[in-house]
Amino acid sequence: MSVRSPAVPTGRRVHRPRSPALVIILAITGVTAVGTALLALPVAAAGPERASFWEALFTAASAVCVTGHLIVNTATYWSPFGHVVILVLFQIGGFGVMTMATLLGMLVSRRIGLRTRITTAVETRSLGIGDVRSVIASVLRISLAFEAVTALALTARFYFGYDEPAGRALWLGVFHGVSAFNNAGISLFRDNLVPFADDPWVCLPVAFAVISGGLGFPVLLQLRRELLHPRFWTLNTRLVLAASAVLLVSGTAFITAMEWNNDRTLGELSFGSRLLNGFFLSTMTRTGGFNSVDIGALDPATWLGMDVLMFIGGGPAGAAGGLKVTTFAVLFFIIYTELRGDGAVNALGKRLPRSAHRQAITVALVSVAVVVVATLALLVMTEFTLDQVLFEVVAAFSTAGMSTGITPDLPLAGQMIVVILMYLGRVGPVILASGLALRRTTRLYELPKERPIIG
Asked: Where are the domains of the chain?
């Protein structure tokens, strides 16, 4: 007796749900294509000639991926229209990816009805995943609030401190406020923020916005509700805040110490300005991307330390890129547990599930592999040194956007690698992590266990 399949009503097409990963990739690709077309218009360029297709594409990709890697100078190459397009691109890129990452993080943590809710949202093109509407509204309010506060602070400084006209001061404040919170690192000044290296009224608001945007929206949403009740904080919030504080302090101490006597960076600044710029650079390695000194003039040892900080990145489901501080923290506690000889991996009073161990190790090793392959490729096709190439690769993959200045001089194939790295760094970790969390395979058998020699 044969079993018939359920009948499908004629005249109706059966749609398979698209995966969240595909949705993110298609969204970013679509926005990048539109941005490229707008930047390729004659009105977008400041000079008499329009931007080339590649210049428009590279700039659009960098803005959408909130990276800040550039092959042309934003301040001088693009017109006011081009600047507006770039601002809109990194606002959409930051808000869109952050929102999707937040929703995926919430859904993964709840697990109940996950596939159904994602399928419904994709097929109906609506926000019908539980409390998605309230989450997106909260994300939007938080984004605009931080950007507005930063923009007001910078506008006041540019207006009163640098005698900029009111309109120009407001535009500079808005552009840099949005760029900072989204960790884009794109500036309207020819030398980025180097002219303000000794001005805390510019550096500190920008650093504050970068740190806030890099914490991740799950953390910001919880702090908004339970700021004064830390006992209710989730493990994710505690890990992000603790790891971020440790990395900011240690990064500040390292960079300041390494560059203290470097006359091309911090050496000629006052004592207070050295500390300010050490903190500012440490903050920017959390994938902020701005620079208050010439990155190309830093000591190679400082580059290496910044490579590590950029690779770790910021909090998950936020504007920051990189491996993410939570992944780094999980790896740290795994190593700590092995050194102690304990059976279970515990972190801040909680036991970590074994699935978290595997996910952290997988994301870390895949990320390392991407960096190594890209570094080797650029070393083969260019004559730049290993420390320069490694810094450029890590900065692109972590979406930090800081540069030693070699990106414009890379061959076209090398610049294409940078674009790919920006894309992988922006969507790769969240897609890989969520995919691992959502993928469950039940085996009906287990293989015999055998232990190889380790070490």
From this structure: 20-438
